[in-house]
Design goal:
This protein has 314 residues and is α/β, with parallel strands linked by helices. It contains ten helices and 13 strands. It has two domains: 165 residues, Rossmann fold (3-Layer(aba) Sandwich), CATH 3.40.50.720; 87 residues, Alpha-Beta Complex (UDP-galactose 4-epimerase, domain 1).
């Protein structure tokens, strides 16, 4: 039996690199489409092909692949800059649609688009796949371009008999992520034995999902040939204070190092909704980890080597 083949764009990104590793481990043949092939870790793997490619370039030959997983995207440095809107739509919407058009013309069997769960309109309750989407509260130009990509690809796939799966990702964390954002900051500070001050009364809340759960969900969508929109989150929100306390416990830090500033804004409104994951659980056997389980898995795998410089200051 021949190997199943996957094409992965954005393969040097945080989630993309992890997806390549897991797909290879499961025996897939992988074509990684990347802007800079030098950034792909050297591997002596016969079933990995690396192609230099950027959104807007002609798509290489992919028609024999079982699926194309599209992660490549443009994220502006300043998410509030309206002048970046045109570039966001050019790359994230028009570019993704062009990928789908070229892939379909080659006879590709399936496309998986990695979207964002931050497109949901703010609301106290958890968001299901049918909840209202209205991203005007932050990163509106980027998020609108991601949401419009979903609409365009789902419509194109339906019209051209090419199944499209959309995964709306919550806030992803885990091994290999860049050293920015809430979770890396908490790990770096608390593993280094330094005080951590949390703003907004520790109320800022977000759905935190472990990277391997997202990767597993994506590969399961390919294996089970399921299309449509699926939330990829943990199923619950985690407040910043709770996240910090969990990190402290796992790294062996002292919770007394955690201080909380008084809330000066409506922190809950500035966070993001929890995601309902019942649909993914039903159709894709999705069983995401809790935040503590994810942090413990990260520690088991790497020992938080990414933060070893700060750990040495303890």
């Amino acid at each position: 039996m021949s190997r199943k083949e996957l094409v992965i764009t954005g393969a040097t990104g945080f989630v993309g690199a992890r997806l390549v590793e897991e797909a290879l481990a499961r025996g897939y043949a992988v074509t990684a489409l990347v802007r800079d092939p030098e950034r792909v870790a050297a591997r002596n793997v016969s079933h990995l092909r690396i192609e230099k490619w950027s959104i807007g370039d002609p798509l290489p030959v992919v028609g024999q692949a079982d699926a194309l997983l599209h992660l490549a995207a443009y994220i502006p440095a300043d998410l509030s800059d309206a002048r970046q809107a045109a570039r966001c739509f050019e790359v994230n919407t028009n570019g993704a649609l062009q990928v789908a058009i070229e892939a379909a013309s080659q006879g590709l069997k399936r496309l998986v688009l990695f979207g964002s769960a931050q497109v949901y309109a703010p609301d106290p309750g958890a968001a299901s796949e049918t909840s209202a989407t209205f991203p005007v509260h932050r990163a509106s130009y980027y998020l609108a371009s991601k949401l419009s990509a979903e609409i365009c690809l789902l419509a194109f796939g339906r019209a051209n008999a090419m199944p499209v799966t959309v995964l709306r990702l919550a806030s992803v964390y885990g091994p290999g992520m860049q050293g920015t954002g809430m979770v890396p900051a908490f790990l770096r500070t608390l593993a280094g034995g330094r005080p951590l001050i949390i703003a907004d009364g520790g109320q800022y809340s977000v759905d935190l999902v472990y990277v391997d759960d997202v990767v597993t969900l994506a590969l399961r969508a390919v294996e089970k040939s399921v299309d449509g929109v699926f939330n990829a989150g943990s199923g619950r929100s985690c407040a910043s204070l709770e996240a910090a306390q969990t990190v402290a416990d796992v790294v062996g830090g002292n919770r007394a190092l955690i201080g909380v500033e008084a809330a000066v804004t409506d922190a809950a409104a500035r966070g993001f909704r929890a995601l309902e994951v019942a649909k993914a659980a039903k159709h894709l056997d999705y069983r995401p980890r809790s935040f503590r389980e994810g942090i413990e898995a990260w520690k088991t795998e790497t020992g938080f080597a990414e933060f070893e410089d700060t750990q040495g200051q303890r």
